[in-house]
Amino acid sequence: MIIAIDGPAGSGKSTTAKLLAEKLNFIYLDTGSMYRAITLFLLDNKIVYNDEKIMQAVLDKLKIDIEYNKGIFSVFLNKKNVNHLIRNSRIDSSVSNISKIKAVRQRMIEIQRSFSKNKNIVIEGRDIASNVFPNADFKFFIKADIKIRAERRLEQSLSNSITLSEMIEEIKKRDEIDTNRLVAPLLKVDSAIEIDTTKLSINDQVHKLYKIINN
Predict the structure, then answer these.
(1) Does the residue 213 lie in any domain?
(2) Within 10 A of 40 (CB to CB), how many other CB atoms are there?
(3) Contact in structure between 13 and 109 (CB atoms under 8 Å)
(4) What is the rounded distance in angstroms from the CA atom of residue 65 to the CA atom of residue 79?
(5) Number of folded domains that form the chain
(6) Comparing C-alpha atoms, which of 97, 85, 121, 117 is closest to residue 183?
(7) CA–CA gap between residue 176 and residue 96 (Å, rounded)
(8) Domain assignment present for 73
(9) What is the tens place of the pLDDT at every residue in 54-86?
(10) Phi first, then psi: what are they for 199, rounded to 5°?
(11) What is the CATH number of the domain that holds 45?
(12) Quick check: is 65 in a domain?
């Protein structure tokens, strides 16, 4: 069974997806971490990522692996676990621009589909129901008020150098990029169930989705 959860940054989809997977005894796939890992590699190596030919050459050589073990989803770049390096404002400010590159999305989708084959899995991202798994058994679109989303992202961030107002502006820019990109934009498909998490705790979110799936 495939459960697809889409939504914008800070809507609560990542934590909800992870806990829902645990509750269902499913595997959890965090697609956002995959794009963050690619972003880390490009920034650290000062690669010009707006050149499609350069990007394709980089992706052809870069080894990207993912695994889910004992409740933890991990991303590896050239066999190095980069989980602890991808949650900061530097990555936040660039990940949407890199995520919209066609070659990057194609590579990520290949990995995601291969990893998910014949598995019971909860997958979250921005184009899971619309593009990666359009035939998912359950499709959810999670949203929330932007101030709440910004507060959540600040709690997740390992950096204390950004204010709430700055985070709100950053999220607005990310939303603009994600919803207007030409390749697999963020959108709610007609068959997705919309969940507004503004006033919901994480436990409430998980319970609501779990109840729908097991109804």
Answers:
(1) no
(2) 21
(3) no
(4) 7
(5) 1
(6) 97
(7) 9
(8) yes
(9) 899 999 999 999 999 988 999 999 999 999 999
(10) -110, 15
(11) 3.40.50.300
(12) yes
